[in-house]
Write a structure and sequence with these properties.
- It is a single chain.
- This protein is α/β, with parallel strands linked by helices.
- It folds into 3 domains: about 5-105 and about 250-330 and about 415-435, FAD/NAD(P)-binding domain, CATH 3.50.50.60; about 120-245, FAD/NAD(P)-binding domain (3-Layer(bba) Sandwich), CATH 3.50.50; about 335-390, no CATH class.
- Helix content is about 35%, strand content about 20%.
- It is built from 15 helices and 22 strands.
- The strands form 7 sheets. Strands 3-2-1-7-20 form a 5-stranded parallel β-sheet.
- Helix 1 packs parallel to helix 8.
- Bound molecules: flavin-adenine dinucleotide.
Amino acid sequence: MSAPLIVLGAGPAGLAAAEVASASGQPVLLIDENSAPGGQIWRGGPQRWRDERAGRLWDALRSRPHVTLLAGARVVAPAGPRALLLETVDGALTQPWEKVIVCSGARELLLPFPGWTLPGVTGAGGLQALIKGGMPVAGKRVVVAGTGPLLLAVAATVREYGGEVVALLEHRASGDLARFAARLALSHRGKLLQSLQLAARLRGVPYLRGAGLLAAEGSGRVERVLLRHQGRDKAIDCDFLACGFGLTPSLELAALFGCAVGQGRVAVDGAQRSSVQGVWAAGESTGIGGVDKALAEGRIAGLDAAGAAPDPRDLGARATAHAFGALLAQAFAPLPSLRTMCSGATIVCRCEDVVAADLEPHTGWRSAKLQTRAGMGPCQGRVCGAACGFLYGWEAPGLRQPVFPASAATLALPQTQGVDTVARAHPASPEQQAS
Ligand SMILES: Cc1cc2nc3c(=O)[nH]c(=O)nc-3n(C[C@H](O)[C@H](O)[C@H](O)COP(=O)(O)OP(=O)(O)OC[C@H]3O[C@@H](n4cnc5c(N)ncnc54)[C@H](O)[C@@H]3O)c2cc1C
């Protein structure tokens, strides 16, 4: 048997890459830190999926004995040349690699405002993930705020699970949204249809366009949201505030391999090859564009890694998805006016409790880190790095190994284990593991 192709991330990009690569008999080891495959959009595992594309991919993968899913395993650092260090609930593992496809997805851009650290205030996608993970919201009052189409998807999830969306606050004005819809109607009709279907599921929800978030307030947890709309200040009582200002590619895994990054995304060529030989990247880590982009790029990377030519249909789908991604980026780039949400007393680095007034005198990450400890807590700047990029134009702080927090026991693991150990530690089929 040839060495397995390692696919990092079992979201749409990783599942698509694993499926096409394994179709020719290539052994594949699919690794994800979540306990079930699916990534962000198909979170919750196969039993909850409604998108038939997810079901088809999963049915194909679980029917192939040369495909192994290692779920609940986070890649944290290199373990010597051409080996990875993984942390699982059962302990640490090392995994040698020859060919890797990085499908690490994206995370939310979280922007600071007064009260954003109160319990009950979450990222928009974060609240959706909590709900899909089983957190009850039935009967809870939820405000969804920020900008972009993800807000609609999140509000629809809240409603579906019995929550009351008391307001949907979109920072962009009605005119911007109308122009975006007109562009969708011209070249991305399927996406327009999806938006209209989501909007229909939100009938009756107060949808305030051009709304500015001022603060979250409450004693011990969020109790109300203060906002400005049409020149008037208002307060809306709520149990949760879910905020989304866009997504940003997750670059840690690509950094672990030393892949070149440009414009905040992993740089790839037409075959999804990164700058490092033997490493491909696909999905949101190479730029935000949604599930269709992730699927097309995953298939292109998987075929190339297995030594096969790309399918022209995937190349076409990728081009369309890239155009959609560019349209999204243009229509929903966070407006400079969002900077005014953050006052001097607002916490920016929530790990180290550093407020904006302490950061403002600095000209970049280096001096800010040295003198305030911003970006030096457990998240290592994953949250405040992007926020400071938006607020002050600072380039995100460089990543250090381990790229994710790891226990001392993991870091001390002798570098002797490999794929056999992985297989022995997790002998279950992908289907058994997912259930
Ligand atoms: C919070 C959130 C919610 C979203 N909700 C929606 C939605 O409702 N609808 C929609 O259309 N789009 C949504 N998106 C956009 C979403 O990113 C894409 O639609 C799609 O999921 C992208 O697929 P992907 O395979 O590129 O990445 P993802 O689906 O994000 O998959 C990446 C996978 O990599 C894994 N991973 C990352 N780092 C490691 C590591 N170190 N070790 C092991 N595993 C790792 C993650 O656990 C994840 O499963 C959401 C994005 C975010 C961030």
